[in-house]
Amino acid sequence: SVVRAVSLRPIEERIDLQRAMVASRDATHGALVQRSSDGRYEVRIVAAADHLIGPYALDALRRADEALGRALGVRLPGPIRLDVYPTASVLAEVSRLTVGDIERTGTVALCKWDRLMITSPRALVRGYAWADTLGHEFVHLMLVRASRDRAPVWVQEGIARFLERAWRGGAPSLTLDPASSHLLRRAARDGRLLAFDRLHPSIARLPTAEDAALAYAQVATFVARFHRQHGTGGLRAVVERIAQGAEARAAFAAHAGTPWATLEAAWVEELRTLPEPTGRAPGVRRLQFRRGQDEDEDEDGDIDVEAVRRALHLGDLLWAHRRPGAAAAEYERAWAEADGDPVIGSRLARASLAAGRAERAIEVLTPLSTVRPDHAPTWSTLSAALQASGSDARALEAAHEALWLNPFDPQPHCVLAAVGATDDERTREQATCRELRTQ
Question: Are 353 and 384 in contact (CB under 8 A)?
């Protein structure tokens, strides 16, 4: 029983667990509950201001359930529960993490005690990839059951990172951001890869954001390589072996029919052949948590060239005075010196769109959406620019991407009110657009 399992833990763990349970009870008391029509999925929203995320979260849960069930061969009993917490501090209270752990490594979601827990994207300046993060945690929920909770952290995180976007449809695949790719290749070249056992008990406990990014990149690329050779069936077979008591490394080696040392060496050698990054080494992007309610929707703190900052600041002043054409001219000056910066690019596109130059906005934002797919303002403005240019199908896709990063930005909702795929979607988005515009 649960009571007996808890009673067998060391006293310190029991005290921590009791504190987390009490905090969870207090945090979710009076929470707004939204359920799917069949009752299988349930979203508990702690702060009323986060209620808009509910329908999108329910849709993501359903899609993840179906996609991951096919991939891992697991059917979870319902209801499947998700808690949405308003801040990182509340997530820390209901877990065994600290706010420092969360902010240092960007751990804004957890799967514990048979439920999913995420921080609201409203708690961050630009939002974050909350829908893919939800997919990541859903993998953990399934792996706990499929492996009988015997899979070590590195297996859990590797498979979760590899399958986190499966809910979107299509074959599983892995795309690393430029900073993670750079860290991975450099660590492989210099012999500084992290031992998989260092990930225990949690990547969130690693000392730096760089260590966390490297850890995720390592385990994800190992799993991706194994999947290329053995498919989803191979991953499922490994998990089944672990559930039956096999040690994780032995499970991978047994299915591959080769010693673990050979598997590991081949993976490391593949990492060393990754293409050399060009230009300045990209830094790991840290999530920007809100410190107050009046922060700008985007930040320019990463821009360190004074001339660029001056042009950007002048552009902001002109934008505030409703002179989008003049603002766009200043942003163009900044863009010429810092091509590829998402903050400058999104502001240039916003001003260009307002000045009637939708094609210039699309020209700037289309490559940015590939290089920095986690930057919500890029997708938001791109959706509006595509709509203005008459590209309704692409506008719909971009608007969805924006909502999967920040569902509290009115612009993508307003785009979907016009280009939504169904009458129901257009009606819902029109109401949400109106609600957010009046706040």
Answer: yes
Report the greatest alpha carbon distance in the chain.
69
Helices (H) then strands (E): counts for the chain: 19, 5
Residue 21's Cα: distance from chain center in Å?
26
What does the pLDDT read at residue 97? 86
What local confidence, expressed as pLDDT, does residue 420 receive?
97
Please count the other Cβ atoms lying within 10 Å of the Cβ belonging to residue 273: 8
Q: Where do we find the tokens 């949405």? A: 84
Q: Residue 8 carries which side chain, given as an amino acid letter?
A: L
Tell me the pLDDT tens digit for each residue of 172-197. 889 888 888 889 999 999 999 999 99
CA–CA dist 83, 185 (Å, integer): 37
Position 426 scores a pLDDT of 97
Strands 109-112 vs 115-119: parallel, antiparallel or unpaired: antiparallel
Give residue 231's pLDDT.
Answer: 95
Question: How many Å apart are CA 33 and CA 275, to the nearest integer?
Answer: 48
Express the helix, strand and coil content of the chain in percent, nearest 5 each.
Answer: 65, 5, 30
Residues (pLDDT < 50) of the chain are 1-2, 295
- At 267, the amino acid letter reads W
275 phi and psi angles, rounded to 5 deg? -65, 145
The number of beta carbons lying within 10 Å of the beta carbon of residue 213 is: 25
Angle at 383 between CA 410 and CA 417, to 5 degrees: 55
Helix, strand, or coil (residue 284): coil
Q: Is the pTM of this model over 0.85?
A: yes
Mean pLDDT of all residues in the chain? 91
Distance CA 119, CA 27 (A): 13
CB neighbour list of residue 286: distance below 8 Å, 6 or more residues apart: 103, 106, 209
